[in-house]
Amino acid sequence: MVTPFDAEGRVDEDVLRNLIDWHLEAGVRGFFVCGSTGEGLLLSTEERKRVAEVVVDHLSGRGLCIVHVGHPSSEESARLARHAEEIGADAVSSVPPIYYRVDLEGVLLHYRTIAEATSLPLLVYNIPATTGVRLTAEEMKRIFEIPSVVGMKYTDADYFEMRNILDLVDGQAIVLAGRDELFLPALTMGAGGSIGTTQNIFPELFVGVHRAFLAGDWKKAQELQLKASRAVRVLLGYGSLDAWKAVLRFKGFPVGHPRPPLRPVSPEDEGDIRRDLEALGLL
Hints:
Elements: H1 13-25, E1 30-33, H2 45-59, E2 64-68, H3 74-87, E3 91-94, H4 104-117, E4 122-126, H5 128-131, H6 137-144, E5 149-154, H7 159-168, E6 174-177, H8 183-188, E7 193-194, H9 203-215, H10 218-236, H11 242-250, H12 267-279
Parallel strand pairs: 1-2, 2-3, 3-4, 4-5, 5-6, 6-7
Helix pairs in contact: 1-2, 2-3, 3-4, 6-7, 9-10, 11-12
């Protein structure tokens, strides 16, 4: 989920609730809050807790809520994980340790610290392009030996390695693909679902890909994936998360602009984004 902000830069709880309802109507089955798209690492701890509280409360069992608790401090991650359990979240997730470079034992310590703080299922958030932490399949298997680790959000394009991880744990893992432009290929290699950025603006495309894949309708799945991939290509050209937020503004959700150092797109860029997506038949 994106985190919406009002004109003063505060979390807009009403818009957050409206987004949840809209996504549920589109067929979305769960919400990953305070992740990269949700600007989790740019929010204060109290803001992160409040966003999680609003989502869990408003869902009221209508969908899953996975709370991203990643933080440079493992202890702070553990505190966020305890809070997630207290409010009734379904699972927690975390990026590996960032900023301070640690070895595999440090990565394991990070995840054990979170796991020991809560009884909730824990998903590894694997996004090496952002964290700079790239783990081999054998190293990932070590993390999966932590009892509460049940899966991973896999934001990478190496699906051969993703499959290797699944094989090493005998397929006993939930894998949620994080590269929006490659959702269908990820499904063919064993992913069970998707968590990403573009789902925030075109949820129907990703729900459609998943349903078509499960039904064996390859032609429809490919058509929808190509639409999603072309949208991603357009949006990446503007170099900012605000390109995705701009589309939500077009759709009537006043989500505001990202927190610094993420920059807003210019009014000219907003016009170009609208034009380019209209040309693709997506607006």
